[in-house]
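@channel sequence for tomorrow's demo:
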Amino acid sequence: MVQAETRQLEPVRGRRPSVEVSKPIKTISLKRRAFRRYVKNWLAVIGAVIILVSVFLALFAPLIAPQSPSQIDLSNINEWPSRSHLFGTDASGIDILSESIFALRTSFMVALIGQTITLILGVGAGLTAGYFGGKIDMILSRLIDVLFAFPAILAAMLLAASFGPWMYEQFGTVGRLYLTVAALSLIFWVGVARIIRAQVLSMRESQFVEAARSNGASSWWIIRRQIFPNILGTAAVVISLGFSDIIALEAVLSFIGLGVTPPTASLGRMIQGGQQYIDPFWYQLAIPGGILAILVLAFAFVGDGLRDALDPKTIGG
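structure tokens (generated this afternoon):
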């Protein structure tokens, strides 16, 4: 009887006990979610491709451009687009394609340097005013309000007109370029500072910041490890949108003669020269104007795509 009972308790050979194995739940990081949301916006993707191609052309302009932007060919003045000159030539015989490629370099140089200064000043002032508050916030906020109320184009024109000749004497043809970058940077950082300050104010009393304070964390540690990473998305959106503003303003200053000076190529100067010969050589105005419009729209599309992809209300869903 004992042997029979033990025989019944033995498991059947060839069969494995059924064990329920729970499948691991796949988690998607916030970065990957943001990337997926961005690539779904086809206008933002097109804008990013246009910017990447433009940056490539600007970086390798001396190798890609068929001619020098300052090479004058009096035998081919006002030549319409052809195989030898794909975009035609202007009234001085300069190849418009070559000048456009080097003008992209000027636009990106001004925008990159200007937005770097804007990012440092704007984020720094916004973080300081929003987190510490009190007199620091009052002083910085009043300064921001005063500069923000001043028209950007007017301030840039005043600086360029006042210090342009002196900068040209001190630094040569690139002096106006330095002045243009400084003028645009001193204007646009206030907008970034206002946005960052508002976000830091709402974040300063949050639970994770209060928990860090209760654990004895210093203000610098909280700003660096808790607040700064959470405002990077907003800063990226504002800076990307600011690129289009700086590129457009640089073209405006060059158009009215207060921007970069020859032989430095600029879309604004090309538009200014092309409008004098719009009839019948309309392409001299349409080509640089179209390039400027495409650049501005590309940065606007990228900014909108980043804003949607990094929206904290939807990125976690």
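heads up for whoever presents: The chain has a mean pLDDT of 83.
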